[in-house]
Amino acid sequence: MKAVIITIGDELLIGQTVDTNSAWMGAEMSKIGFDIIKKISINDKREDILELLGEIVGKVDVALITGGLGPTSDDITKPTLCEFFGTSLELNPEVLEMVVQTISLRDYPLTELNKKQAEVPKSCQVIKNAVGTAPGMWFEKDNTIFVFMPGVPMEMEHLMASYVLPKLRTIFNNSTIIHKNLMLYGIPESILAERLADFETNLPKELKLAYLPSSGVIKLRLTGRGDNNRYIENLINEKVAELYSIIPQYIFAEDEESMEITIGKLLVARNKTIGTAESCTGGNISTLITSVPGSSKYFKGSIVAYDNSIKTGLLGVNENLLTKFGAVSQQVVEAMAIGARRELKVDYAIATSGVAGPSGGTESKPVGTVWIAVSSEKRTVSQKLRLSADRKNNITRSSLSAINLAIKEIKL
Q1: CATH class label, 259-411
Q2: pTM across the whole model
């Protein structure tokens, strides 16, 4: 089953608006067995819309289109659709009633432009929009289903979830597609691919493995396709178990769970607390951890010890360590972690110290040199990182590496 996703609007092409719709629709369509063969963004021009619709009609099963359905004069999608599908606009009483209700709830006056939202092509099947004023529209032509929806993400997602996806499931119900994701950290993609070469070669024909890296995290995705749902599920479960036997030390979670969510779950399950002492990461680790709802249950606080005086004054790092080894050293970062655990009165403490860049490096400690540490009642461990010359990347990778080290310690 083939699908195309199209977004309409000049604002998408010039970068004023980031296209999040395509990613969301692609993920949801993939879950119900569709192959997304193209994602296309075009401007809101009649001739371009007509040309694109003409190119895909009869060649794909489904085309999902968002944008260009507003009431303003520059939204010309609906008149263009009438031209393509050989129909004309008409005022739909049910849609008009919903528009009136929506406008009244927002305490806005009803304008002629609002009323235009209730004009739809006669030949389409109207999809009522309970969270906005622009309805969705369902057309069928030459064995291709065309679904037009508003570009507002909340409205599009509502129409997809409440109507479009359920209806597509009933029409195309002859195959199964299952995705299973394992989240990995601490191994380069190239080395991981070598480690899993035999595993991948011996995969059953129903399964496919994909590597999806981002900022050091690798999402390892197993996709299964077939006619027997139970059989595909069993195959995937068997192969996931095999992956755990091959690379257990790199898997920190499943199903796209982030590190900050993983560490929170571990701390809650063990009734433990955590805090941070951050130098080169400047509070980024605490930002990640506290981005999770409910993190107040386990996160106590952070000391951003950017200057050495904070390291010695608040964390109790011995000045002799700074003089002898420097701030970016195993000895200092471990002392920071121990001090943070003591001062914040937590079960685990994370510490970082490094040269984030782009300047400040030396021959012995070039830009990208970072030390991370985790301290607990059991022990204090540390790790040296050799990262890049890019400051933003170094802060991100240092933060994730430190959280990953803490996850391993909490699991002990």
Answers
A1: alpha beta
A2: 0.75
Say if residues 290 and 366 touch (Cβ distance below 8 Å).
no
Q: Report the alpha-carbon distance of residue 312 to residue 322 in Å, rounded.
A: 9
Q: In 3-state terms, what secondary structure has residue 283?
A: coil
**Domain range list for the chain:** 2-171, 178-254, 259-411
Please count the residues of the chain. 412
Rounded to whole angstroms, how far apart are CA atoms 386 and 368? 6
Q: Cα–Cα–Cα angle for 26, 189, 396, nearest 5°?
A: 80
178-254 belongs to CATH 3.30.70.2860: yes
pLDDT at 133: 78
Calculate ∠ Cα 328-285-399, nearest 5°.
55
In one letter, which amino acid is 117?
Q
Scan for tokens 């943070």, then name that residue.
340
- Class of domain 2-171 (CATH, top level): alpha beta
Interval 56-105: pLDDT, tens: 999 999 999 998 876 554 567 888 999 999 999 998 888 888 778 777 77
